[in-house]
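User: Here's a chain of 193 residues. Predict its fold as tokens.
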Amino acid sequence: MAVKCVIFDFDGVISNTEESNYEFLQKALKEYGILLTDKEKYSLIGTSDSRILEDILRRSQADVSLEELKKKRVAIGNTYENTDIQPMHGLISLLDILKKKQIQMAIATSTSTRLIMTALNKMHLISYFDSIVCGDMCANRKPDPEIYNKTMAYLGRKPEECIIIEDSTAGITAGKRAGTYVIAYSGSGILQD
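Assistant: Prediction complete.
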């Protein structure tokens, strides 16, 4: 069966946000005396698992809740709203080729809708995508395949008609669990296995 749709992750695929995201997170955690380890950074890529952050917060001398960290992060800022966010090198050329070939395009990301829509607006990319599914639209996070299954359902596509482009282990696993062909992209700022 021919490819009818390409589904992109956002962070590390559409835009090289991961390093900046960790800088903002590290600024917030530093307020509580916590420095992220490399292992913790990698465990957060491709997911927004609050359990990982709760474990990290336990290292603070103060009794810090996840809600307090979220408020601190809002006050400090984020990559999507407070930086000159740019598309990955070569992305727009790829999007133009896919559009010309009438291949549907979608985004499936663990990041919140508000932040993704802000970033896509800043980069003038919204018009390329037939569907955008974000983490706050799903009950389960990657590596669960829910986000990819939901994206394919919105587009009326079967797994064998889709290709997913992902850069994280959690995302690649989610794509495979959804039954699609997955391209593991390694061009983002944080290299992974």
